[in-house]
Write a structure and sequence with these properties.
This is RDD domain containing protein. With about 160 residues, the protein is an alpha+beta fold. It is built from six helices and six strands. The N terminus is likely disordered.
Length: about 160
């Protein structure tokens, strides 16, 4: 979405651009896609190697809180979201992680925001929902200065956040 430049006086800081934040539903489905993809691979590899998996009724399972599996998720999100702002799930849902102004993030920022998702997701989301209600961020989004947006938005100079309806 382009900035409204009708009142442009040479100072770009007065322009506003709207960034459409991704809905919790889109974020959930992106996460679910990632968990299914990465979980299937890590479960299979873990089962073959005999590490970080256990069996429930003969079905091999893994838990994100187990360090090796959590590390796999953390590395996956750090690399993909640090490179282009999108994991496979985010790509399919047409959303992306950016900084608070809509710019790409680096690997360190991606690592910080991915940590909560990989190891502490229930607390990360719950605290974010309760403490930062209408901001559509998790705690680790806030700590890393990131947001999740609908893809296709331009990089803003002035920002007005538009939350999902």
């Amino acid at each position: 979405m382009a900035a409204d430049t009708s009142a442009y006086d040479g100072d770009r800081s007065t322009d506003e651009t709207k960034i459409h934040l991704a809905s919790w539903e889109d974020r959930f489905f992106a996460w679910l896609i990632d968990v299914i993809l990465v979980g299937a691979v890590s479960s299979t590899l873990g089962d073959i190697a005999g590490v970080y998996s256990f069996s429930v009724g003969g079905v091999p399972m893994t838990l994100p809180l187990l360090s090796v599996n959590g590390l796999g998720f953390w590395l996956y999100w750090t690399v993909l979201e640090g490179y282009g702002g999108q994991s496979a799930g985010k790509l399919l849902m047409n959303i992306a992680v950016t900084d608070e102004r809509g710019a790409d993030i680096d690997y360190l920022t991606a690592a910080i925001q991915a940590f909560g998702k990989a190891f502490l997701l229930p607390l990360d989301c719950l605290i974010g929902w309760l403490a930062m209600g209408g901001e559509y961020v998790r705690v680790f989004n806030k700590l890393s200065g990131t947001i999740v947006i609908e893809r296709g938005e331009s990089e803003p100079t002035g920002v007005e956040y538009v939350t999902p309806e």
